[in-house]
């Protein structure tokens, strides 16, 4: 039996690494990838708790998170393509047209 | 015991891959490490006896999202590596915030233990999962299909090259 603390620490680590990626990197594609890491960390915790509670709900919630992650990736990539067409760059700093 | 060893193995692989995703300069390398992390996470799901979710993770993430990333990188074909122009001090502060938050939660967790309610005893088998999914969670499930349809239409509209002037 895997201790629940180990599962939660793993999920937290993945979440923290994804968080660092989102706030530090400026490359739009790497930021989207870090978002996937964030969602993965949340999924690990959900599944671990479902296992601990001997309930199928953890898995079901994680499944909905995956559905959301797929939607986010698809729309995110459409936006990246539109962005790239406008700016010829991945860098989020290129998008400063609304700077006051 | 062996389960814990396998869990630790996949957990270390997942964390190492995740760190490599965010430190790589080359985007394509990042994508490959993301695939690595995703597959290691699927291994973690298998050790947690969520076989269905592990399979979904491999199919949807490993087979779908990672390939989508690779396609996008090939389509936009960015030759030059964008230099990250953030200086060291803001970068350190930005790294420190998530690390501090994660460390605090981990400390509280390890110091006090994680309070979990008594096991419900519903079981995690396929049959139980299917009955719960199509019983209690039928409405969110159907809503997810509407969401995916909206995403399909929205992604096509955002990503297409120019407006199509339909005579009708």
What are the key terms here?
heterodimer, A: mainly alpha, Helix Hairpins, B: about 170 residues, mainly alpha, 3 domains, extended
Report on the structure:
The complex is a heterodimer of chains A (100) and B (168). Chain A is mainly alpha-helical and 100 residues long. Chain A has one domain: Helix Hairpins (Orthogonal Bundle), CATH 1.10.287.3510. Chain A has 3 helices and no strands. Chain A has helices at 4-24, 28-52, 57-87. In chain A, α1 packs antiparallel against α2 and α2 (28-52) runs antiparallel to α3 (57-87). The longest helix of chain A has 31 residues, at 57-87. The radius of gyration of chain A is 17 Å and the shape is elongated. Chain B has 168 residues and is mainly α. Chain B folds into 3 domains: 1-82, Four Helix Bundle (Hemerythrin (Met), subunit A); 83-113; 123-168. Helix content of chain B is 75%, strand content 0%. Chain B contains 6 helices and no strands. Chain B has helices at 2-23, 27-47, 51-76, 88-112, 126-135, 138-159. In chain B, α1 runs antiparallel to α2 and α2 runs antiparallel to α3. The longest helix of chain B is centred in the middle third of the chain and has 26 residues, at 51-76. Chain B starts with a helix and ends in a 9-residue tail after the last helix. The model of chain B has no long low-confidence stretch (mean pLDDT 85). The interface between A and B is large, with 72 and 84 residues.
Name the shape of chain B in a single word: extended
Named at the architecture level, the CATH assignment of the largest domain in chain B is: Up-down Bundle
Number of strands of chain A: 0
Terminal Cα span of chain A: 56 Å
Largest beta-sheet details of chain B: none
Regarding quaternary structure, how should these chains be classified? heterodimer
Number of helices of chain B: 6
Mean pLDDT of chain A: 87
In the CATH scheme, what's the topology name of chain A? Helix Hairpins
Q: How many domains of chain A?
A: 1
Reading off the top of the CATH hierarchy, the class of the largest domain in chain B is best stated as: Mainly Alpha
Instruction: Indicate the structural class of chain B.
Output: mainly alpha
Proportion of residues in extended strands of chain A: under 5%
Low-confidence stretches of chain A: none
Quote the beta fraction of chain B: under 5%
User: H/E order of the elements of chain A?
Assistant: HHH
The run of helices and strands of chain B is: HHHHHH
Give the CATH superfamily of the largest domain in chain B.
NADH-ubiquinone/plastoquinone oxidoreductase chain 6, subunit NuoJ
